[in-house]
Amino acid sequence: MIQGTSSGAGKTTLVAALCRIFSDKGYSVAPFKSQNMSNFSYIGKDFEISRAQALQAIAARCQITPDLNPLLLKPLGNYYSTVYIHGKKFRKMHATEYYQKFVRTRGVLLATESLTRLQQNHDLVILEGAGSPAEINLEKFDIANMKMAQIAKAPVLLITDIDRGGSFASIVGTMALLDSKYRKLVKGFVINKFRGDVTLLKPGFKKIKEKTKRSVLGVIPMFNFDLPEEDSLNVKAKDMAWSRKNIDKMDSEIDKLGKFVNKNLNIKEIERMIK
User: Fold this and answer.
1) Pick from 50, 88, 95, 223: most CB atoms within 10 A?
2) Region 171-187: what's the mean pLDDT?
């Protein structure tokens, strides 16, 4: 499972890259994100899910199904969202109702059902978290991060955006705030969006290892790929048509992404974790 020290750390892109890398290795792969909040979606024949998971499915070369994103929230403003369950429009809900009455009961069950089906039908399911797992005020309502990793029995890689600054503090702080039962699921770290000489980071890697007992498994340099963005604080996403031409273009960019990440990440160690 890929989790991040913050929103916009690169979780979605890294999951897409890993889906392509392991698909190229011969695995039957599927992406999964239990809960996504986005107004940018993929509309199938009779369902609607986040477009991020549809893109990741293209990367994994798997069928795009509602199980990839069982819970989709489309924000309406004033703390209301339209909730989609397994690709079907459910109803408008206030955040208070959603988190206090829905998430910990029906929500987690629906997400687990989808995850179980994917695990039964694929060699490897690569999960994506949401935001940060260390939002301690929201931990009991969080079914997108450590709760789902625990259910999936998945090793967790924590990715951080070093271009923002404060990445080492974000890694150590995230680990310090996690409950011990969740902390043990984290197996390593990925530094994303780095500019410069990687050797300058090595003293930091040593300190990180001393403080967390875990290693940095890769440094991904800053590089721009022509892939659709998710709507976030950092990016105003644009709508797009899911035409054959656009899908072929995405597939070509994902190939480049997979090769780029494969060069900069310890894929052998990650493969060892999942076996």
Assistant:
1) 50
2) 97
Report domain extents, the chain. Answer: 2-274
Q: Is the separation of the CB atoms in 189 and 216 below 8 Å?
A: yes
Of 63, 57, 51, 70, nearest in space to 151 by CA = 70
E strands, 64-206, in order: 71-77, 80-85, 88-94, 124-127, 156-161, 186-194
Q: What is the mean pLDDT of residues 246-256?
A: 95
Strand 88-94, strand 80-85: pairing: antiparallel
Q: Rounded to an integer, what distance in angstroms lies between the CA atom of residue 245 and that of residue 169?
A: 42
Q: Please tell me the distance from the alpha carbon of residue 20 to that of residue 39, in angstroms, as a whole number.
A: 25
Q: Which two tokens stand for residue 251?
A: 């597939």
Q: Which of 161, 142, 162 is nearest to 150 (CA)?
A: 142
Q: What is the CATH number of domain 2-274?
A: 3.40.50.300
Q: How many CB atoms lie within 10 A of CB 178?
A: 22
pTM for the full predicted model: 0.95
3-state secondary structure of 153: coil
Residue pLDDT, tens place only, 18-77: 999 999 999 999 999 999 999 989 999 999 999 999 999 999 999 999 999 999 999 999
Burial label for 123, CB within 10 Å (0-12, 13-18, 19+), is: middle
d(Cα 139, Cα 227) in Å, to the nearest integer?
Answer: 31
Q: Find the helix packing angle between 11-24 and 51-60, rounded to 10°.
A: 20
